[in-house]
Each structure stands twice: as C-alpha cells, then as structure tokens.
Amino acid sequence: MITLIIHLCISLCFWIGNLLNMTEKEDTCSPTGVLEDYFRSSDSETCSSKEPNNGSESHKNRKLRSRWHGFMQLLRTRSKKPLNTMHTLNVLNLSRRMSGSMREIISKFGSDSDYGLKSPWKNFSLYELQVATNYFRQENLIGKGGYAEVYKGCLRNGQLVAIKKLTRGKPEDTTANFLSEIGIMAHVNHPNTAKLIGYGVEGGMHLVLELSPHGSLASMLYGSKEKLKWGIRYKIAVGTARGLLYLHQSCQRRIIHRDIKATNILLSEDFEAQICDFGLAKWLPEQWTHHTVSKFEGTFGYLAPEYLLHGIVDEKTDVFAYGVLLLELVTGRRALDYSNQSLVLWAKPLLKKSESRELVDPSLGDDYNSRQVNLVLLAATLCIQPSSIRRPTMSQVLELLHGDFSCLKNVKKTRISFFRKASREELTNTEGQKTKPGIG
Known about the structure:
With 440 residues, the chain is α+β, with helices and mostly antiparallel strands. It contains 16 helices and 13 strands. The protein starts with a helix and ends in a 5-residue tail after the last helix.
C-alpha cells in the first residue's frame, strides 16, 4: 500500500510539472498560483515578501486552492504531521485521502490520459539496483552526503547510472524528502542539469540518474590519475554557471540548489557539467526574496556566511558555493581539505595580491590560458564576498567568464585587484586580434 501511494505521488509530480509547462498565465487560480500559496503558507520557514499584486480572492479560487492543498500537504517536508501516517497504522486513511485529492484534481483539470498521469520514469526493483552496483559495494561509492550516498552503477542494457540512496533520517522524513526531490526534478529540464531516468522504493528510497564514464567533477579533479586539462575546467565552470542561471531565473519557479559542490556536478561524455542532487533544493516563488531556514543543512567549505549566521537562503547562497567551486577548478584543492583548512581562507590573501600563478593547480604547469584563469579568479573573488548583496548574479557571472566587464561598472576597482589584471589581459587579447585576425 505504501509503495502504491508513493508511485501515485511520483506520477502526480510529473503531471503537475507538465501542467505548469502548459500554463502561460500565472494567477491565483492556476496550478502555479496554488503552488505559490502553498509555499507562502509553510509553517516551518519564514520569508521576506514583496508587496502582493493581487486583491481579495473569490470563493471559486479559494475552493480550487483547497483542492490542491490536500495533495500538497502530503508533499510538505516539514509540516506539523509530515507524512507520519505513511509509516503508522493509519495507512488506509492516507490512501483514502490521497485518492480523494487525486479525484478532485483530475475532475477539475481533466482525465489522467489528458495530462500524462503515468510516470515517465522507470520503477527499478531493489534487485536491479543491487546488480547494477554490485550490491552497493564501497568501490562504487562516488559521493556521500548527510542523508544519502551516490553509487556508480551499470544497468543490464549497459547504460551507466548514478544511484542516489537515501540512508539517514526518520522514515517519514526520508519519504517526504524523496518526494520533494522528485517533485523538483519534474520541473527541471536543461542541458546542464542531471537527467532522472528512474527511481526505486523497494528496500529504501533510490533515485537513478544518467551517468557518463567520467563520473563527478570531484572524482575527476581529486580521484583521477590523469588531471583535468584547463580547457575542460573552464568548460565546466561555464556549464555550471549556465545550469545555475537556469535554476535561478528560467525555471517555472526559481530554485535554490543549496548544495553546489564538486561531488554534485556530474560530467557528460563531452565533459558538459550537469548539476545533480536536489535533495536540499528550495523553491523561491516570485513574491519571496529569501527563505529563513531553521534546520542546518549543507556542506562545510561551501556555506555562505549569511546562512551560517542567520539561516538566510537565497540565490546568492548558491553564488557563494559556486565561487568556492571556481577556486577548486583553478587550484585543484578541495573546499575543505583533510586538515579542515578552508580553501576560501587559504585563497583570499593570494587573491588580494593578484598572485594568480600561486593559485593555479601545479599539475597544470604552464599549460593553461592565463586570461581565462584571471577571469575565473575574478568571478570567484566576487562570488565569495562576505556580503551577499555584493555578490554578482549568475547572469553577471557568465558575462565575466566571457570577458564582458560591463556588469562591473558600479564595483570599486580598487577593492578587486583581479579586475585590473583581467582587464589588461582582455586589452592585450583584443589588440592581438586586431593585429592578427586569424588568432582567437
């Protein structure tokens, strides 16, 4: 019964994603508007809100919202009763409640065949996942977090996959987090985000993602004998920035990833960066400027100061973590090494002195593009600013990585030593193009 209910939830997650894609006008009576209201009503987190644009709502809109609210309550990860009934003797009551919500939604918007209620993802058995990972052997472990482990696997058809196995937490919390992540991934579709191909709920909660032989950025940057060339590192930096820009601005709802790090960047066959692991991700509706989170989660070494001090989460939280990732790409050092030394604290004095050569990974030797290195270090310098309002947006970061300094017109150059150095490199490169047209 529990497994059936989870399957229904997953199918509805995909169906809601399709419905949101078809909805162009966003108002209080649309599914998007209802989802917004759901997040506004969250009782475990507070938000900073802009002035609302809509007036008082009609009885019809309130009735529609109540229909959606019944289902959304089941997906709330921190409600007063977060899916507890799924793991108690009240399973039958939950089943009736779920069925009622489904009937109301379908009767309002159409039949399941009209909106693709059937999940497009494959439901893997526990045996299939065990065979793919050699029974979750330690040598296949490619990533580990506070609540999950990620294993490299190979399906019977030869396809390589990354299998995320939720390992910790109360059963009801694990189920809620699993459904929440599925719900977010149903709305995400971009070349620089990981592709979900299936899931498994037998013997625990599992997510199955596409994986190339390269694995994660962490495995290539720190675990591979052959070091990544600079050109590939720069491509990864740009690809990750594009993925974050999509999440922050182009998705149906703004998404804060909250766990950007080297292990959560998968690499495709041609080394295209793909952001994965949305277990800590948060939706940020249009009216909200930020979340204030009470539960401390994340990875040390990547956490922004405002989150550590006040629990504030917004897009700039991801920007800070991305800045740390840029430093990892340039230096080849971990965000937090085995002696617990912070990469940010180590790099800041060198960034202030414009000592780019001392920051570059020694394994690269002189085989790197100095102009690109300076641009990446400039972006990293801005991204790890202690004050979130002084950090750039991801659209500005992409401009910087491509040598466009127009977004820095309001930045005091004296405070960013790499600005002058990168500018000189850009000027030299531009002059070289004028004198030697064939050289890029």
